[in-house]
Design brief:
Serine Threonine Protein Phosphatase 5, Tetratricopeptide repeat, 158 residues
Amino acid sequence: MEFELKKLSKAAIPAALGRAERYRLLNEPALAESICQDILVVEPDNRQAIALLILALSDQFIENIVDNLDHAWSLLSRLNDEYLQAYYQGILFERQARVYMRRAAPGSHFSHGGDDFFVDPIPARIPNIGTQRRPGRQSSPVLFPPAAGFFYVGRFPY
């Protein structure tokens, strides 16, 4: 016997987004991911669900970086906003770098002494993204979080 799961109603989406956010903050990213996927079945272009899903997947990089990074990367284009794409791309680069820096295994790209660190994650296709003003939003510039800014390129000085 096979059971069919009920679909989320459109009216339940705001509450579901709140629940997904809470699960993420409670360090339960797999539950947040599941809720976001349920939301996206009903409303495929829901930016908040897509952004939360990207963050939930990046929270799980330590467990399976290859699949989670690929899935998160594939979601960026669905944001349909150049600024948001660049913002979440920077977050993905930062979290990917953190996973690799914590690894000391062969193939981690850091087991050979820390050469050739990651490059600036802010895409060159959007110059000065950190100082641009968001159209239709507040008048002050919106900056990337400090940790998502730049990574040292090349050899460490020590």
